[in-house]
Amino acid sequence: MNAPRPVVTRFAPSPTGYLHIGGGRTALFNWLYARGRGGKFLLRIEDTDRERSTPEATAAILRGLTWLGLDWDGDVVSQFERRDRHAAVAHEMLARGTAYKCFSTQEEIAAYRAAQEAAGASYAVFQSPWRDADPATFPDAPFAIRMKAPRTGETVIDDKVQGRVVIQNATLDDMIVLRSDGTPVYMLAVVVDDHDMGVTHVIRGDDHLNNAARQQMVYDAMGWEVPTWAHIPLIHGPDGKKLSKRHGATGVEEYQAMGYPAAGMRNYLTRLGWAHGDAEIFSTAEALQMFDLEGIGRAPARLDFKKLENTCGHHMAMADDAALLHELTAYLGAAGQPALTALQVDLMAKALPVLKKSAKTFPELLDKASFLMIQRPIVPDAKAAEALDAVSRGILKSLTPQLQNASWTKEALEPVLTEAATANGIGFGKLAAPLRAAIAGRTVTPSVYDMMLVIGREETIARLTDAVA
RNA sequence: GGCCCGUUCGUCUAUCGGUUAGGACACCUGGUUUUCAACCAGGUAAGAGGGGUUCGACUCCCCUACGGGCUGCCA
Fold first, then answer.
1. pTM of the predicted protein model
2. I need a labelling partner for A104 at 20 to 30 A (CA). Which of A35, A94, A189, A405 fits?
3. What pLDDT was estimated at residue A1?
4. CA of A306 to C1' of B26 (A)
């Protein structure tokens, strides 16, 4: 019995922008798969395209992953820095006879295709005249190294998500592995890096499914063990088209700035395109237990903000108070809003156990907490001002001295308020409205008891006094 | 154009030849309630279309339609 190799997965984004939400999900799947099996999750930045790669983009990707709670093992690998190794492998392929020098210029290749099209072909794979050329005929000119790919037969990708995918070798050309300027091509770099990094499972977007065939040829050419493939469908927008900027947020950091809690985001993203029976709301620890490649669907999934919000609501409610307060602070920073004052932090800590139960996002939480964020004198909005008519103000005024003596617990406050209502011949609702207006300056707030308990007796009485003055 | 992948309620999905096709979000109705929520109960809602295979197909095969991807000395 051979012990199975420990799982090694990786996330390999191009640093050409922010961390796309689809990329975030791909990273999450890789992370869940590795971490759930005691394996390693590696991070590699595919920065071989010097024109488009920026350090800012790399930083943004790292921030996005960190926010999602996806930690990687070891150092971040730069693909560009490994270019010498890639080139060495290309030359090794040359030595093995699995690749050859191609002196065809780009003009010649274009001309070849044009000629084929003129001859009626709709598309033609380029067939280099140098594939089997005698070295004696080699010109003294720059050359690219092309893989000597099989021209007949088929390449089979045994994919954990897509199943058995068969590609006819005749439809693939001899891809270039090393450019004429000596730089490696992405297709070669990925294979060399994945092999050198010991990656056992390649979990990535299905836009790479066709590429897998050519990459598998490189593995074969080098005599390396082919990793387990798992090509997952891309995420689409609500209209079913590929998710793009016109759908709204596509960057992971935008979701943070919109105030979705990371745990909810993880849960939602895990469930998007993956299922485990009826499991809907689960912790990350539970996700780690359940996640497998089997549960990944084959069809692209659409983003549904309503469900995202609902999922986040559950996580908000079950979050640990201290952790939630900490994340709220981080949210304010990410959203570019002022930090909480010491007093607000104090009040927020008291209010959180109640507020978190009904909020789905941080902005919503903050809105429900507005009664503790504001300062006297409180300026009521139009509707609140209406609730504070002369009669109501009179009732509030008579209530103040009674609050002075009541002990400040919900149990003690309840009879005080209900008795005040009956004494004035009104229902509790009629009393709560002006109270709410006086305490919060608005008509939609948490329970009046909860607000009073959070801000305390002194502040409550001060606000009531202001309102009736 | 060629090749590859996909298609179950509006959305995410379960089902792995035999089910009244299940769950969740959303939506609608009712309940609870000091407001908004939250919460509780109930309801509407699906196998893209057409051929096969089979005693029996959402499940297997073929065709069509639609969607997506790849087809580069980009990644």
1. 0.94
2. A189
3. 41
4. 7
